[in-house]
Amino acid sequence: MLFFRERPRISLLLLAILLAVLPFLTSGLLGNSWVRLLDFVLLYILLAIGLNLVVGYAGLLDLGYIAFYALGAYFYAWLASPHFGLHLPFWIILPLGTLFAAAFGFILGAPTLRLRGDYLAIVTLGFGEIIRIFMNNLNAPVNLTNGPQGMDLIDPISFGGFAFSGTHTFLDIKVPAIHLYYYLFLAFTLLAILVAYRLQDSRIGRAWAAIREDEVAAAATGINTRNIKLLAFAMGATFGGLAGGLFASFQGFISPESFNLFESIMILCMIVLGGMGHIPGVILGAVLLTILPEALRYIGDLQRAWLGEVIVDPSDLRMLLFGIALVLMMLFRPAGLWPSRQRKRELTAEGEIAAHEQESLHDAQR
Amino acid sequence: MDIFTQQIINGLVLGSIYALVALGYTMVYGILELINFAHGEVTMMGAMVALAVMGAILGVAPNMPGILVVVSGALLAIPACMLLGFAIERVAYRPLRHAPRLAPLITAIGVSIILQNVAMLVWGRQYIPFPEILPKSTFTVFGAHITGLQIFIIVLSALVMSGLWWLVQRTRLGRAMRACAQSREVASLMGVNVNKVISLTFVIGSALAAIAGLMVSAYYGLAHYYMGFMLGLKAFSAAVLGGIGNIAGAMLGGLLLGVIEALGAGYIGDITGGFLGSHYQDVFAFFVLIAVLVFRPSGLLGERVATRA
């Protein structure tokens, strides 16, 4: 680690090369389904970074974040599928879709301004469920979402005549669509990371940190807490809407199934597990929690290798192990796997004080 | 008129089940300020264990009176859930008591995933039917039909809730619980064994959850490894509606949410001129929840938390 820390330029270059060849490496070693997984990892990083703005920076517990992902996805599907016969180019839809999601961020934010902590959590959760139920049922009387069947034949992203579907050949290298999407998502993810870092150090970011730590004190220092909270919701929603649009074009098919509460909870787990408010931690969390359930599909092979036969169906065992891993990881790293240094310091300090208190209490009891 | 009465009664039945589960959420929240996301799964486990026991009994003695079978199912499911609640607190929450606020939320989600999948491994993915052993009798009140089971559910939950009320208000343990809810540190200075009180809170909440789980499976005639999720969500909403941390609030919130849902299911089509059907009942319930919280940000009976200075 020290080698890389002392040579930031070389390590950055190495990272860039690694990211560039990663899809080819993955498809060569593990097969194309893993490249597809990589694409999803990038989408989840995008979502986790977006939710981190709301939960990690501004400290507003949001359990309905997936709704913005859903809104972005459906918005894309409405404007680029045979459903309404519209086939607009992605560079019109994606910006509009993010605005659309941001507008809903405002709508969600407005009634929740007076709520604190867990009351906020339940309202956002309700919002997420409301959106999902509407998506599920708006096939009648006007067919907007095609109900539980979902919408399909969504256009892939294309630049002019160059479509992100099918295999293209550059310099005699065959590049399948999933690889192309990888680079596209990577570009958006890098952009999101950059934006998140810049936001963190901006006036807005500091205002978010202030209301996270103490809302009253923040208001007393002249921060317009109402606007700044609404901004957190809207900005978070923007990332969600963008990821949703990308998801719709990538999958070509969306249904309400993909946007249930469990997904919201998973994204929250990613940021808490990784280390709230710390972007490298959040990325780590997103990577781990996306890959882990897929990697656990190989338990069947493991059982065959070790025990000679498959005793428990791996698809049954997979989520069980996932749950156990979630609990264990949190028990051993309560502040997240990769917390920011400042947060770590705060926590250990608190822990010491708490230990002291506990000791003196113990004395008092005797 | 009779539709109205009917929906109110259906709502009260559902609501008293919600209230029982909501009590578990609210008691834990009152002391630890923790959303025990695994509580819904404890309810599911209660239903599953009870059904398994009842199935085993019916396999041996098919002619046993139905009520006796159900009671013995409950008598095994309740301690099982109590043990489960105790274990969950010990393993997943106690080590994280001084951790950041959201850390126990994640272990709670982890535990709930574990319980769901254990249930799936043990009992399979299919719906498990509730054996048809309970006597079927229907009464007619104001033009509405009430089954014996519905009356039984309402009466039993009323009894259980009054028992809990007595426990919290009139016993030493209840006083210790209320003291811990106000301040764990000061309570411990007064000689309250805080860890024991927290453990007992989980155990009591889990016992209520087991009863509620059995009621739900009897009412809908089935149980399923996934049933705890939605039930837990509704019950948590109910606890928040009433003002989380407040025991009377959880009871009121549960009953209210049940009635709102039932009325929503019955009337939402008429209100919107047929535009929205009864499958929007959850939307209706969540809208009411959000509306209540907008006007009373700490729930119906929640204390007005003064803004910190």
Using brief descriptors, characterize the structure shown.
heterodimer, A: 366 residues, mainly alpha, two-stranded antiparallel sheet, 6 strands, B: mainly alpha, two-stranded antiparallel ribbon, 11 helices, 4 strands, 73% helix
Walk me through the structure:
The complex is a heterodimer of chains A (366) and B (309). By secondary structure, chain A is mainly alpha-helical. Chain A is built from 15 helices and six strands. Chain A has helices at 2-6, 8-29, 32-57, 66-79, 90-109, 117-137, 177-200, 203-213, 215-220, 225-251, 261-274, 279-295, 299-307, 314-332, 341-365, and strands at 80-81, 86-87, 158-159, 162-163, 168-170, 173-175. In chain A, the strands form three sheets. A two-stranded antiparallel sheet of chain A has the order 1-2. In chain A, helix 3 packs antiparallel against helix 10 (225-251) and helix 4 runs antiparallel to helix 5 (90-109). The longest helix of chain A is centred in the middle third of the chain and has 27 residues, at 225-251. Chain B has a domain at 19-227. At the A-B interface, helix 6, helix 11, helix 14 and helix 15 of A face helix 4, helix 7, helix 9 and helix 11 of B.
Outline:
The complex is a heterodimer of chains A (366) and B (309). Chain A is mostly helical.
- The CATH architecture assignment of the largest domain in chain A turns out to be Orthogonal Bundle
Mean pLDDT of chain A: 83
Structural class of chain A: mainly alpha
Quaternary: heterodimer
Name the largest protein-protein interface in this structure: A-B, 53 and 57 residues
Q: Report the average pLDDT across residues of chain B.
A: 87
Describe the largest sheet of chain B: 2 strands, antiparallel
The amount of beta strand of chain B, in percent, is: under 5%
Note the topology:
The complex is a heterodimer of chains A (366) and B (309).
Chain A: H1 2-6, H2 8-29, H3 32-57, H4 66-79, E1 80-81, E2 86-87, H5 90-109, H6 117-137, E3 158-159, E4 162-163, E5 168-170, E6 173-175, H7 177-200, H8 203-213, H9 215-220, H10 225-251, H11 261-274, H12 279-295, H13 299-307, H14 314-332, H15 341-365
Antiparallel strand pairs in A: 1-2, 3-4, 5-6
Helix pairs in contact in A: 2-3, 2-7, 3-7, 3-10, 3-11, 3-12, 4-5, 4-6, 4-10, 5-10, 8-10, 11-12
Chain B: H1 2-32, H2 39-60, H3 66-93, H4 103-123, E1 128-129, E2 138-141, E3 144-147, H5 148-170, H6 172-182, H7 184-189, H8 194-220, E4 222-223, H9 227-242, H10 247-271, H11 281-295
Antiparallel strand pairs in B: 1-4, 2-3
Helix pairs in contact in B: 1-5, 1-8, 1-9, 1-10, 2-3, 2-4, 2-8, 2-9, 3-8, 5-6, 5-8, 6-8, 9-10, 9-11, 10-11
